Each structure stands twice: as structure tokens, then as C-alpha cells.
Amino acid sequence: FHQQMVYAVAMTTIGHFERALGRRALWAPRYAKYAGRGGDQRGKAYEVPRLRIYPHGLRTNNAYYSPDKKALLFGYFAAESRGGDTTAPGSTVFSCLSSDIVAHEMSHALLDGLHRRFQEASNPDVPAFHEAFADIVALFQHFTLTELVSFEIARVRGDLSAANLLSGLAKQFGEGSGHGGPLRDYGNPKMAELDYDKSFEPHDRGSILVFAVYEAFLAIIARRTEDLVHLATGGTGVLPAGALHPGLVDRLADETVRTAGQMLNMCIRALDYCPSVDITFGEYLRALITADIDVFPDDPLHYRLSFMESFRKWKLLPRDVRTVSEETLAWGTLDGPSPGWLHGLLDKIDLSWNQKLNRSEIFALNEKNRWALWTAMKQVFAAHPEIYPQFGLLPDLPRYNEDGTLLRKARKGETTFDVFGVRPTRRVEPDGSFRTEVIAVIHQRIPARLDGTVALDGANAADGFFWFRGGATVIIDPRSGQEEIRYSIVKNTGSAERLKRQSQTASANYLSPLRALYFGGETAEPFALLHTGHGDDDRV
How far is CA 533 from the centre of its chain? Predict the structure, then answer.
């Protein structure tokens, strides 16, 4: 049953991702380096055909996704419950029996398959985002279970803002590991006191993002069920004493489940609109707004307004936005979205995507396309060096070894960059038409010293360095005769402000247990560190 449990929840989570993104999910590949022509160094990606899941992988009160093993490992342990807990002291607690934990860890794996650089804690939001997003998926998957939602609504008498509606994440696991309650109880009043400007521990900081998304959810539910409550209360808004009518419970549950599914789709779909490195919570809001506008230009129930108001309350707005509106938060487009070189470039990409292809065939096609795009973009940049800023790239950048030392200086007019992904996204337009778009991820990296200066001639690994990355997530409409770059979501490699912020983050954590998340190379299990590297706190 333990094996069936993790398989069922894992497949449910994969299904939500694939429906929201419009393509099959792929796991983060393994990479190997080899020397290309002229001393150029390229990374060859090897397919990971399946994610391995170990229901009894650890004899400890932990569970985590292993990027190195490409596996989910779930722990089991003897409970250390406190008085009043529902978990009996000394009984064996299996983390694989918590749907919250399984969904959480599976979300880590799926997110890593989409954005491999979200493992690098270039600012405090990055590790917090991984934790928060995994919690968001686990929470909303709860609310897509009609029977569970009906039970909870009847129990709390329709008060969807009641603290015990959530019931906390992974209650038995939290009690068994001595926490005296759920691992992260979002109904606890103390959790609501978290301050974005003062909370830097990844779980606490991530909880703020979860609060922002969850309060937007509550606001939307309130609007969707307002007429039902008015009818049930005769316009007073106060429910009568006694049990709720089963018909009212069913209707409230239907609205809650439908909204939860829509919110889950929104949160996952936004991943395609995120910068591929150095993400912040404010940029995730921009991705949410942009992705939703693309799918639903009209917003009669004010979903986007709910997100904006909630993120503003929790101080999660982007740094570069002065006024809060859909127009200012949505990603901007290029002044010339249909340059002449784009048409020939798309001819180099194989757009024969087919849902009937198996995952190995899809992976092979993606690899073929990313190398084809790299070759084509290299020629485009050579002919049009003025477009480097449109992709956040610096010209004349050398190529470096993995230890930060110089491998080869750039040839005149060239620069170093890599294409880490070319993936499709499919969606149904509001008018019922079907659209496929191309999402390309372009990266560039420079070794930087801890004092915040770049080491263009190579770093001295003994003195400590970190990789400063830039580039763009480029969303392209490939339709014949209508080719255009719809969005270029840029992280500028030449940004002095961002370099300073990353330097401060790296220096502050140089001797911490999370050092490997900032500098890499010292551990293959960053999520195990995230889950156990905070004193006596072994939360998942």
C-alpha cells in the first residue's frame, strides 16, 4: 500500500503539471562536459527516463528530492508525540503516507526539471520559492478532493477562512517528529506575523508567499460563493445554528474545488513565464499575471486583482514597479517583436511536436532543437550584435572552466552563451483556437568574487567565487506569417545592482549549512540541507 500511495499521489501531481503546461513532464537531465571545436566547451545532456521513488528510503524524520539520484526518498521513524497528539508515541510514522509530503517532494522534482538553476540560492527568495511552490501545489491538491473539501466545509460551518480549514501540512509527520502539530501550520496566528523584510530562513520566507497565494484564493472563493451565502442566510450573511444543509455544503464544495483547480493551473502555468535564474517573489507575481492574461484576457471574477492585493499586503511586489495594475505587472514586449532574422531562425527548429511521442522521443527532440537554436543564435548575434541587450547578454564574454578559471577568451564579435531548453507550450485560446508557442531559455555566466566584482579573466577558486548568471526566457509565437517574440523575460548579466545583491547573499551564507546552495559542488543533496539544516527543525 505504501508503494501504491506514493505512486497515486505522484501521478496526480504530474497530471496537474502536464495539463497546466500543455506538454509532458521531463525530469532534470544529467549533464556531462566535452570539448567542442576550437576548445569550446559544451554540455551534453543525458535523459533521465524515470524518477525513482523510495517509500522507505531513510530511517529518519525527513524526506527529500535528490537531484543527484534523480529520486524521491521518504523517511520513517518512531514517533516522539506529545500529550494530546493523535499519533501514538513510539508508533512508526511513514512520511510516504502523507499526501502533502509526497506532493511537496514531487513538486521539487518537477520544478527542477523545468528550472535547473532554481537550486542556486542567488538571492533569499530562490530557495524559499522552491519550498513555497511545493507547499502551494500540496495545498491546492488538497482542495481538489471533493470529499475532503465537503467534510471540511461541513465541519467549519462554511467559514473558509477558519484556521482549521487547512488542517496544516503533514499533521502526523509533524506530531511524530516532536513538533506538537503539523509541519507548517498555516492556521497558526504566529505564522501570519512573518515579515518579508526580516524573514530569511527558506521555510519562513516561503511561508509568506504561500500566505499571499492562499489569501488570494480565499478572496476569490468569497466572491464566487457570495450569492450562495446570501440565499442561505436570507441576506444576513450569518448562518443559522446547527448543521449546514447538505445541498449548501455540496454547492460550496463544488465552487471551492473548481477554484482550487483553476488556482493550481495558474500557479503552475506561470512557471513558463518566470526568469530562468535568480527569481524573486515579485517576478513570480508578474509571471502569474502575464500567463493568466494570455489565457483569459477577461477577468470578471477578479482573480488577478486578488493576487495583486494579496501580494501588496505581504510586501511581495516587484522592485521595478511603481504602480500596481495588470498593465504594469505584465511582462512587456519588444519594440520590434517581429525582426527579420526571427523567421529564418524558426526554420532551424523542428516544430513537429506530437503528444503521442513518448518521453524519450520528446527529450531527443528537445536536445536537437536546443543545439539547433544555439547554432542559429550564434550566427544571429554575429550579424546583429546590437540585440545582445534584448536577451540580457554581454558581448565579448570568455568561456570558463567549472572551477571559474579561464578556458578561452572570446573571439572578436562573439560571446559565450548556452541554450538550456527549447520547449513547447500548448493552450486553447478564448476563441476556441489552438496555439503552440516556443519557450527558449538562454543563459550566460561570469565568475564573481565575494566582494561583488566580476572576474572576467577567471576566478581564483581558492579565494572563493560564485557564478553570476544572466540571460532570458524567450516566448516565441512560431505561426507561419505571424512569427514574433511575445516576451523576453530578461535577467541582465551586466546588472551591477543584481550582482551586489547576490554578493551580499553569498557572503552572508558563506559559512552556513546552505553554502552549497550558493557556491555548488559540495553536496548532491541541496533539498536534504533545506529540510534539515536549521538547528533542531527537521521540517519537510
Answer: 21
- In this prediction, residue 192 carries a pLDDT of 72
Cell of 164: 482549521
CB 505 within 8 A of CB 488: no
DSSP type of residue 291: H
| Distance (Å) of CA 102 to CA 17, 192, 325, 477 | 15, 25, 36, 36
Instruction: State the CB neighbour count (10 A cutoff) for residue 192.
Output: 14
Residue 393 carries which DSSP code?
Answer: P
CA angle 59, 117, 125 (to 5 degrees): 80
Q: Is the dihedral of CA 368, 370, 375, 379 positive or negative?
A: positive
Within a 13 Å sphere around the CA of 456, how many CA atoms are in the beta-carbon half?
9
* Cβ within 8 Å of residue 512, ≥6 positions away: 533
Q: Tens digits of per-residue pLDDT, 276-298?
A: 999 999 999 999 999 999 989 99
The pLDDT assigned to 167 comes to: 45
Task: Give residue 313's pLDDT band: very low, low, confident or very high (50, 70, 90).
Answer: very high
> Mind listing the pLDDT tens digit for each residue in 499-527?
999 998 887 754 344 445 544 444 557 77
What is the distance between the alpha carbons of residues 303 and 216, in angstroms, rounded to a whole number? 8
Does residue 121 contact residue 518 with C-beta atoms inside 8 Å?
yes
Residue 77's CB is within 10 A of a number of other CB atoms, namely 18
Give just the sign of the alpha carbon dihedral 515, 521, 522, 524: positive
How do beta strands 399-400 and 484-491 pair? unpaired
Instruction: Read off the amino acid at residue 264.
Output: L
> Does position 42 have pLDDT exceeding 90, yes or no?
no
Query: Which residue type sits at 114?
Result: L
Window from 115-124, 198-207, 449-458, 510-519 with minimum mean pLDDT? 510-519
In angstroms, the CA 86 to CA 216 distance is 31
CB distance 441 to 276 below 8 Å: yes
Angle between helices 125-142 and 281-295 (to 10 degrees): 50
